[in-house]
């Protein structure tokens, strides 16, 4: 039995996968009121081998036919099928539910941002997944999401992933808390560059292997978004906080923002627990691509201070997530903390202490431990 969110009831729906000849036949058996069976055969040639059998009630026949319309999206070459673990046995209700969610996001993006995601993100995804070239954002996201759903049902054993991890103290504490996951940053390996086709694919592939409600911690590089660089970046509401795109570091920041928004949305649609972390002065959440995603996911913002976790400075942070338990990380400003300032002020202008700014970028072990305890509390409350 599976719950159909559109019919509002439980329905008997079984789907099985078995190998067949290269000329594949998709057979649908539908039980009629008079207990007669009708067989619909559709021949699909030059595709990887699959047999999809669906047993359902008569009034679900339209849903089954709808799934057949989407079937060609999943029928790629045999090599790509093996690499992606494509979802041949996902529930029809899942297909319809996720497409509805994606279309709701696209409608909001069209209304608030002129359809930016629908125009830009397919190009980004097609660089990492060649077979997605020419497909719409709805089709591309649906394929990636359904692959993740299948992995969750079969082999989703990873608990977390940390993107733009830096020294990876957060991941270290998660691992010491007996959770399984991985950390990614270009400082570890050039192959983990989120702006490269290989690096982005690595991140999306790993995200697709996380368990349901797994943690996706995204600490996007903030240097071009914070107030300290505002004079050079020229980010403001007048240019939708995209800044002076003639500068390479601004373009690089915009690219990281787009990738972060895409990962955040994918994580949310997969039922994961995405978190975006930025310094309080960062305008990254105000960039429209990210702003639309945060609004669509109904994410909440909480503020904390790294100084409250043993950091060398107060370092105020903003944390965004669609899950309320993120508020467990909130802390008050440590008023009695004695430390050297991170910036030097010169009237209305200021410059940063480079060494202290670099030091403040790292999470403390205490902060990583607090994240681990928050996740432990969340996952303990979930039914097995």
Provide the succession of SSEs.
EEEEEEHHHHHEHEHEHHEHEEEEHH
Q: What portion of residues is helical? A: 25-40%
Runs in which pLDDT lies below 50 for 5 or more consecutive residues are 1-88
Gross CATH architecture of the largest domain: 3-Layer(aba) Sandwich
Question: What spatial order of strands do you see in the largest sheet?
Answer: 8-7-9-10-12-11
Principal-axis shape equals: globular
The CATH topology label of the largest domain is: Rossmann fold
Largest sheet composition: 6 strands, mixed
User: What is the distance, rounded to the nearest whole angstrom, between the alpha carbons of the first and last residues?
Assistant: 18 Å
The radius of gyration is: 23 Å
Q: Would you count the extended β strands for me?
A: 14
Report mean pLDDT, rounded to a whole number: 79
Structural class category? alpha/beta
Tell me the name of the CATH class of the largest domain. Answer: Alpha Beta
What fraction of residues sit in β-strands? 15-25%
| Domain count | 2
Number of helices: 12
Signal peptide: 1-22
Keywords: Signal
